Amino acid sequence: MTTIYLAGPDVFLPEAVEIGRRKAAICAAHGVSGLYPLDNAVDLSAAGASMTIFKGNQAMMDEACAIIANLTPFRGPSADAGTVYELGYMAGRGKLCLAYSNDPASYRARVARLYDVATAADGRLIDPEGMTVEDFGLSDNLMMIHALDLHGCPLVTPREAPADIWRDLAAFEACVRLAAGRAAAPSS
Amino acid sequence: MTTIYLAGPDVFLPEAVEIGRRKAAICAAHGVSGLYPLDNAVDLSAAGASMTIFKGNQAMMDEACAIIANLTPFRGPSADAGTVYELGYMAGRGKLCLAYSNDPASYRARVARLYDVATAADGRLIDPEGMTVEDFGLSDNLMMIHALDLHGCPLVTPREAPADIWRDLAAFEACVRLAAGRAAAPSS
Question: Which residues from chain A sit within 8 angstroms of residue B90, using beta carbons?
Answer without folding.
Answer: 88, 92
